[in-house]
Design brief:
alpha/beta; Alpha/beta knot; 5 helices; globular
């Protein structure tokens, strides 16, 4: 299975980027993983919906033929053990690609949420999208640690 973390914009902070790369490197011991960054639309007053639609068109191309998980604060809350079971089920079902989609500073277009196979929430709080990439990568690594009985998850 390939896990593709798809996020809007590139991390500007090299420390945040290094953290994400560290977890991605750890995950590669267990499965294929990629980090795909799509271009962020400029944030212009009164033009938010137009920018979200343009970003959505970039997501749609990647979503075809994949199992798509969209992160949204109104999505389902899931603990680490449940997330591990969720990913394990995707593996057992023979899912080829799981996209984990993270919106940018403007959020994510409603059309992407509606077309997702699953909408999850990291928290009721809002996080910067570059930090969300690190959190997702860490949780994916934690899920594989749980699946393999590693002491990482206590």
């Amino acid at each position: 299975m390939l896990i593709n973390i798809v996020a809007v914009g590139s991390p500007r902070d090299r420390h945040v980027q290094a953290m994400a790369e560290d977890y991605i490197g750890r995950i590669r011991r267990y499965t294929r993983i990629t980090l795909t960054m799509i271009r962020q639309e400029p944030i212009l007053p009164g033009r938010g919906p137009d920018g979200l639609r343009r970003e959505a068109s970039r997501f749609v191309v990647l979503m075809k033929g994949s199992y798509n998980v969209v992160l949204d604060r109104e999505g389902e809350m899931m603990g680490s053990e449940s997330f591990a079971k969720f990913l394990n089920k995707r593996i057992l079902d023979g899912t080829k690609v799981v996209n984990i989609i993270i919106g940018g500073p403007m959020g994510i277009d409603v059309s992407i949420k509606k077309s997702a196979d699953k909408v999850l929430s990291l928290s009721a709080m809002t996080f910067p999208h570059e930090l969300a990439v690190v959190i997702v990568a860490e949780q994916v690594y934690r899920a594989f640690a749980i699946m393999h009985g590693l002491p990482y998850h206590k």
